[in-house]
Fold:
Amino acid sequence: MRFRCHIFVCENRRPDADERGSCAARGGEAVRQAFKDELRRRGLKGEVRANGAGCLDACGHGPAVVIYPEGTWYGGVTPADVPEIVERHLIGGQPVERLRLPKLERGA
Amino acid sequence: MRFRCHIFVCENRRPDADERGSCAARGGEAVRQAFKDELRRRGLKGEVRANGAGCLDACGHGPAVVIYPEGTWYGGVTPADVPEIVERHLIGGQPVERLRLPKLERGA
Structure:
């Protein structure tokens, strides 16, 4: 592992006419910046990385965020949610349940 | 998990004058497209996702790729390497050692 936790924030921008909307239009870039600021503030820079990502295939739930290696998905994240995710999940090890996306079961 | 494996390919583009170069300039977008094509060909679409990413902080090793949840990092990946990564790593469960990045040890 190069990072203890690796946060990917969807910043995909679809055309304005696309009825799904997009994570960029819903504020994905501000969410990533909020993670960067909060990680620095909490001394986690270097250990946890907040990364921009292209479409995470969760367009209806944007802004979408996935944190690895645990594979926890969050949706509808706002900058105001970020300190709680950092405090509870990244420091405390407990996902923020109210923001989690449902699991998708694929295959058999 | 929404995906069994989630591949992130750095597509970050730095200014041409930046001496580090960048993953986009070294062909990151072609690598991601090669993953998408190969995943479809091998029937893994939906189960494994090839995602574009912003800077993965491994600029000297581009194009950089990280695969989660295992957290395996690859560097200097070309489209010609992609079938081997899919066959050995994503299907066979064995990382392709010759392409792996060294581990970074951070903190105590």
The interface with chain B takes residues 1-2, 6, 8, 11, 46-47, 49, 51-58, 66, 68-71, 73, 101, 103-104, 106-107 of chain A (CB under 8 Å). The radius of gyration of chain A is 14 Å. The helical segments of chain A are 28-41, 82-91.
